Amino acid sequence: EKAGYKHFMAKEIAEQPAVLADALRHYVENSGGVNPALRLPEGLDFTQIDRLTMVACGTASYACHVAKYWFESLAGLPCDIDVASEFRYREPPLSARSWALFVSQSGETADTLAALRYAKDKVAKIVAVVNVSTSSIAREADLALPILAGIEVGVASTKAFTCQLAVLALLALKAGQDRGRLTAAQVQAHLADFALLPGLMNHALGLAGEIESLSDQLAEAQDVLFLGRGPMYPLALEGALKLKEISYIHAEGYASGELKHGPIALIDNRVPVIVLAPRDHLFEKTVSNMQEVMARHGKVLLLSDAAGVAEAGAGCWQALTLPQVPDLLAPILYAIPAQLLAYHTAIAKGTDVDQPRNLAKSVTVE
Ligand code: F6R
Predict the structure, then answer these.
(1) Going by CA atoms, what residue is nearest to atom 11 of ligand 1?
(2) What is the spatial distance between Cα 276 and Cα 283, in angstroms, rounded to a whole number?
(3) Active site residue 361
(4) Which of 120, 244, 285, 361 is catalytic?
(5) Which of 242, 204, 211 is nearest to 334 (CA)?
(6) pLDDT tens digits for range 149-204
């Protein structure tokens, strides 16, 4: 069942280029060919709404958090995001000119399902992004979009996260097109970029050896910080969640710019600080936050592309070079080294990677 891998998690990390390509074939007409076009089900007309509310738990909620950046910047569509356990008890006002979107790998998470039921008669449409198409959340939604990741066994979500992101990015492109923010040609250019993603992901998987060789040192850390800006901020949250849940090392993700508002007090030469920073328009700002860490002897591990590592790698404890990637796809690509860091650190610590203590794959109690 593990197809030669030591753990389901390793297998599921490695499967990502293939399952993502499956999802693209499902949602993109002519993926990888000429004139690619979105192929989404009927009933997703984003001109009908002026707000989108996204609700999920854990890793799925970080996918929503990334998607908020996309929906707002590509489509000018205001988004709310919340974790389901808070959303359901807050009595959030919901408008009839909005949709509520629920993201869940299992489709059975109790809080997410309860949040869906709360939203039911208050919004124009309930959309679900799920892995298990026969699940309660898929059945109770007005429209369920499968992420096509295949069965995920490892408790730590990996391939479901990147497939959730892919489906959400395609929805954001549809929203951008419907709302007149993106031309058909721009959408096509994004879809052409998407076709390159499985190849880029394969390249990122090639970092496993380098990451493994860092893992002994990371395994000694008491605390690890992850930093990112823009859509890489929720990736920092996801990287920290993955590390803490399988290696039991205390880890936190922060928006890079928040560092000086408190967490920088934690920095000393024993705290690895993992910076997720493709060389995009926010890079210089992230680098200046990174330099604040280095000035306090923090051990910076920079994840960037060749240009970013060339510009800012000096003085870092370590740097890992990812392929250059279009901005929209960066969070999907950078999820891979974040997963590999957690995986190899957990192996170095000797923890039970597929069945971490205290955790269950599907959380059906609140
Ligand atoms: C983390 C993880 C959890 C789940 C969360 C939601 O690796 O797997 O945080 O993401 O329990 O589960 P689903 O997506 O099944 O609703």
Answers:
(1) 58
(2) 10
(3) yes
(4) 361
(5) 204
(6) 999 999 999 999 999 999 999 999 999 999 999 999 999 999 999 999 999 999 99
Nearest CA to ligand 1 atom 16: 104
Best mutation site among 9, 87, 105, 164 for ligand 1, i.e. most ligand atoms within 8 A of its Cβ? 105
The model's pTM is: 0.98
Cα 60 to ligand 1 centre (Å)? 6
* Backbone phi, psi, residue 301, to 5°: -110, 110
The SS3 assignment for 292 reads helix
Phi then psi for residue 125, to 5 deg, are -155, 145
| Ramachandran region, residue 233 (left: φ > 0; alpha: ψ -120 to 50; beta: rest) | alpha
Is any ligand 1 atom within 6 A of the Cβ of residue 157?
Answer: yes
Nearest alpha-carbon partner for 278 in 312, 253, 313, 303: 303
Which pair of structure tokens corresponds to residue 134? 């026969």
Ligand 1 near 156 CB (within 6 A): yes
Please spell the DSSP secondary structure of 204-235, one letter per residue. HHTTHHHHHHHHHHHHT-SEEEEEE-TTHHHH
Whether the ipTM is more than 0.85: the answer is yes
